[in-house]
Amino acid sequence: MDLIADLEARGLIHDSTDREFLRARVKDGPVGIYYGCDPTADSLHVGNLIGLIVLRRFQDAGHKAIALAGGATGMVGDPGGRSEERNLLDEQTLSANVAAIKHQLGRIVDLSDPNRGVLVDNRDWTQAITLLEFLRDVGKHVTVNQMTARESVRIRLESEHGISFTEFSYMLLQANDYLWLHDNLGCDIQIGGSDQWGNIISGVDLIRRKRQHQVHAFSWPLLTASDGSKLGKTAGARTWLDPVKTSPYQLRQHFLQIADEDLRQQVLTFSLLPIPQIDELLAAHDEAPHRRIGQRTLAHELTALVHGNEAAKAADEAADVLFGGDPAHASLAALEAVGREVPSSRMTPVQLVELVDVLVATDLAQSKSDARRTLEGSGYRCNGASIDVNTQLSDQILLHGRYLLLQRGKKSHHLVEVFS
For residues 64 and 46, what is the distance between their CA atoms, to the nearest angstrom? Predict the structure, then answer.
């Protein structure tokens, strides 16, 4: 497979070093390729997914994936895409963030075999460098003219906040990362979003100047939110890879809500399916757009990739329950997923005796009279079945011996866990 041609067909190469030399290097045999992300939060986000999935594509093709957590660069802060300087994090916080994201990385990129994939932290080689060594070994090879010509720096220089020397030095640190990975891990390709291109190409230049070696790089177009802003941690919409911050169900729904006009590009960007299968999927989607086959397929694939197959299956089932499916057939994992998305409470059988009181207590009714009127109009369901004023909740069969799912209309739910 011509991996570069596949990425081109997917629209995943925005800028690159010499394209034919890049293509030849990838075809020539296994190559180390790295993608870096600064651990400025205790979770990665959907914007990072592109880089991790590109690493996965290379790994699946027999290359070595290098995921870099920027513990050192995270202390400095990348000026790209920001109007003002970010708050600097202390080492303890950064260490906790690196530990938190390692598990997320490991789900997408195989880190079990160091010959196939590794996670590195640039603090390991950066902290020991003295200022004089850094100025002599790195700073000497980069001109201020080159640095100020980079778009991310130029924009900040022209802004009202300006740019600190700390952030100005960020591209030198990132360039040194590429040099270290090239020297120690055989890395010959760096990748990143198009807003990182100035930093990326600085590393290519540094290696050429210091080692007289030709290395490679490419970037992809930025993923943006619906308002056009960068989709990440501090700008635009936030969809995290940590299941506590963004549940598997919410991650599924994020991709399920892709507009039809954006579907092809999103599937090409994120799906590991070969392009011919993607073409078949989108053709099936176009035959019945209302069924959202394309969105459902991509949402399931990415939820499984990030959180595992069982979590993806539970998220699918939870969505079915919350959008009209029969909860009596839902798995325990699906009901637990439902409980994370809708209001829930724990009650004893004694507390279930008075139905109207339960409906008020669960906020499914504003008052007892509201509850009675809605019951008379068949507006409530329990475990998928219609209930009325004569229904005894204590007589209902508990789902998986634990749950009652109460519902008002189509959208209001409350999950009750019954305990003795």
Answer: 22
Over the stretch 144-166, which tens digit does the pLDDT of each residue have? 998 888 887 888 888 888 888 88
What's the rounded Cα separation, in Å, for the pair 236 and 173?
A: 27
* 3 state SS of 386: strand
What is the amino acid identity at position 3? L
How far is it between the farthest Cα atoms of the chain? Answer: 84
Q: What is the pTM of this model?
A: 0.90
Distance CA 389, CA 336 (A): 28
Strands across the sheet containing 403-408: 344-347, 412-418, 403-408, 380-382, 385-386
Q: Which of 81, 68, 27 has its CA nearest to residue 216?
A: 27
Burial of 115 per CB tally in 10 Å (0-12, 13-18, 19+): exposed
- Contact assessment for residue 55 and residue 65, using Cβ atoms and an 8 Å cutoff: yes
Structure tokens at 227: 């308002």
Query: Residues 70, 38: contact at Cβ < 8 Å?
Result: yes
| Cα distance between residue 236 and residue 227, in whole Å | 7
Structure letter (DSSP) for residue 381? E
CB 368 within 8 A of CB 356: yes
CA 369/CA 371 separation, integer angstroms: 5
Q: What 8-state DSSP symbol labels residue 417? A: E
